[in-house]
Amino acid sequence: MPSGSIETGRHRRAIGLLLVALLATLGGCDDSLVVCPAIAVAGLDVQVLDNTTSQPICDATVTAVEGTISERLVENACRYQGAFERPGTYTVRAERVGFAPLELRGVRVLMNTEACPHVETVTVLLRLLPRP
After folding, report:
1. How would you class 57 by CB atoms within 10 Å of its CB: exposed for 0-12, middle for 13-18, buried for 19 or more?
2. Of 18, 19, 37, 59, which has fewest CB within 10 angstroms of its CB?
3. End-to-end CA separation in angstroms for the chain
4. Residue 44 in contact with residue 92, Cβ under 8 Å?
């Protein structure tokens, strides 16, 4: 028998044993197998409004700072999201030309304790005052 056939046989046997071992760890007597979706949850969901008109401001610059980490939040449908899967205590700041900047300190993002751990999204509303 050519050596390639022997190696292929050994390779198939090794893969088979690996699959059996994997299935044994998944199947056991405990039916509590949890399959978590591969998603990243935003820890912060920020809405910025004009305090005078209550209209959304969709072109603000919104940042979140925790310790030495500073992140510019991503605008999506006139909301700003960030701190994906990163629990911590944040200072959230919004600014736009023609408005006084506004900062909110002590915004806590926590990790949930469910079977599929993700951060718990915190919704923040910032109302900017127009500058005279």
Report:
1. buried
2. 37
3. 89
4. yes
Two tokens, residue 81: 């999201």
- Rounded distance between C-alpha atoms, residue 45 and residue 23, angstroms: 40
* Amino acid letter, 69: I
Which residues are within 8 A (CB) of 49 and not within 5 positions of it... i.e. 6 or more apart? 55, 56, 57, 125, 126, 127, 128
CA atoms within 13 A on the CB side of 57: 26
Answer whether 50's CB lies under 8 Å from 128's CB: yes
pLDDT in tens, 21-74: 444 445 445 567 888 888 999 999 999 999 999 999 999 999 999 999 999 999
CA distance 32 to 115: 10
| Dist. CA 132–CA 50, nearest whole Å | 13
**pTM listed for this prediction:** 0.73
Across the beta sheet with 122-128, what order do the strands follow? 74-76, 79-84, 42-50, 122-128
CA torsion through residues 129, 81, 88, 112, sign: positive
* Token pair of 120 as six digits: 């718990």
